[in-house]
Amino acid sequence: MLNVVNNLLLFAKIEAGQHRYECEILDIEAELGTVIRLLQFDAQNQGVTIQQSFSDMAVVGEETSRDLTAVADRQSLRQILINVIGNAKNRLYLCKCC
pTM of the prediction? Predict the structure, then answer.
């Protein structure tokens, strides 16, 4: 319930142009892991498994790198990941029920 209230307050700030984004370099793999841990309990109750998997190396231009980072606002990135993974989880659950 507290998350719903916080999200409504955040949305009101964004609409009013008063929200300040705090951009920083974020480890995408770590942020994804945090979101998966948040959603895992609910997913297990629905009989859905959420897994995180990255290949060993990512090719960026001509360089090869293991780091997957982004410059973003942590709260915004997490909200996007929660929405995408949460929607996928709920659709998988609905498919299993049909």
Answer: 0.70
What's the pLDDT tens digit per position in 4-31? Answer: 677 777 778 778 888 788 999 999 989 9
Q: Which residue has the tokens 């895992």?
A: 40
Q: Which residue has the tokens 């997490």?
A: 78
Q: CA–CA separation, 12 vs 26, rounded Å?
A: 25
Give residue for tokens 């370099």.
25
List the beta bridge partners of residue 59: 64
Helix pair angle (74-97, 28-45), 10° resolution = 30
Structural element, H or E, at residue 73 = strand 69-73
Helical H segments across the chain, by residue range? 2-15, 28-45, 74-97
Query: Contact 29/68 with Cβ under 8 angstroms?
Result: yes
Nearest C-alpha neighbor of 43 from the set 35, 53, 54: 35
CA angle at 70 for the pair 1 and 5, rounded to the nearest 5°:
10
